[in-house]
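As described in the Methods, two query proteins were run sequentially through the folding procedure within a single session, without resetting any intermediate state between them. The first query and its resulting structure tokens are shown here.
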Amino acid sequence: MQRVPAALPALPAPERGLPVLPELAARLAAAARRSVPEPVGGGPELRAAACGYWARRGLPCDSDLVVAAPGAQPLLLALFASAGGEVLLTRPCAASYSPLARLAGRLAYHVPVPAECGGVPDPFALLETVGRIRAEGGRPRFLVLSVADDTTGTVAPPEILHEVCEAAAAEELTVVSDETWRDTLHDPHDTVFVSPAEMYPDRVVVLTDLAGPFAPAAWPAAVARFPAGGTGPALLGRAASLLTAVRAELAPPVAAAVRYALAEPEPVRARTAATARLYGVLGTAARERLDAAGVLCRPPRTGPHLYADLGELRESLATRDITDSVELEAHLTAVLGHPVPGGHRFGDAPDSLRVRLSTPPLLGAGDERRQRALDAPDPLLEPDVAEALSTFGSAFSELAGS
């Protein structure tokens, strides 16, 4: 029987990211004296900026179908609570998804991901899970996807996504597409991102968390694009009512800053490109060290994270009294000096010996050091980065017994 971890925090702590873009800070400071509240769901200028952002990505929409909130979590909670039925999640998935489903009173079912990527379910396993839920009298309603996956750092190939969308359409599922990291592809010329909304337009709600790729984690803000057809308008109305009931409105200074970011002026585009490049360099370097230690890890393609599987090192880990992801999390957090959440936080079984690894801690603690790495032609030559990567590699080589 699998041991269930007890008394664990529900979610990993937010991570410190890159320094705040000066132009973004200026917009926030300029709106600091604003005393008029931002409307729940976002003001017209913010929603228009979000429409422009999606239109540039081939997803035109009407501002009346856009909702903003102080973070992705309130939006997801409002969505889950807006309709009955069960929620389908991938395994692994973002740490917040399952707790939010429970908070909304919904049962959540995890579906394994294919070998190629995370963020989307294996299409056959999805159909099997839906069939099982229906046979037990359930009503599967939502499928949450993350094509540019925050947990594993992978990007789902279009052909797999197409099969998943076909299965979702056949079962009349509403898809929630978390596209937070779509703009941080490490190699945009080699990696193709396709939104489920392009394949299944009438039943896909697109969600973008701006805190991370565009704004600091300390400035919670997110936007959602609802479909014009199908159940979109009804879902939007219910979600907006729930957000209104709990006053889930953006702080006016944050709204001003993210409105500027969504318009994507040159400073924002330059920072986004530099961030994607930095994450790509760090992700590749980290994976090379994992490979050298015999740790399995899908190649990261987007964002700041990797998902490592130490199952091949089980015997070596057992000699160090590490037998599950709870103990592995505690060990690596102590050795590396920053949180390394175990796979149990992302829907994997505790005995899976998996962890999610973040690359920003490799840059050092101060904004000055992180900015220097961001600006460097080769970040790996920065002394802080080189030292952190050496410590990172040694930690896994030691676990491998090499």
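Immediately afterward, the second query was submitted; its sequence and tokens are:
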Amino acid sequence: MFLTKQQLRPARALGVALVAAVGFAGCATYDDEFAGINSRLDQLDTRVQGAAQSAESANQSAQQANQRLDQIEGRVQRLETAPGRNPRG
């Protein structure tokens, strides 16, 4: 069964319409994928900012601890070099 020229035209049009519909449907799924990726990137950005704040807080705490150690270091050295005491009794 061969198609005539008159029957071939609507078949071509239908084929082109079918290919176009599949192509446009594929683009719609990319929008959903991009939205998902953007959402994931936003979540990661929030986590990175939180980690950076935690690191900054830990750095400040470490600096305060170092300052405290510097303050008591002189006292410790004086106690280590002080002459020993004689026990009573």
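Residues 51 and 57 are 10 Å apart (CA to CA). We note this only descriptively and draw no conclusion about the first query from it.
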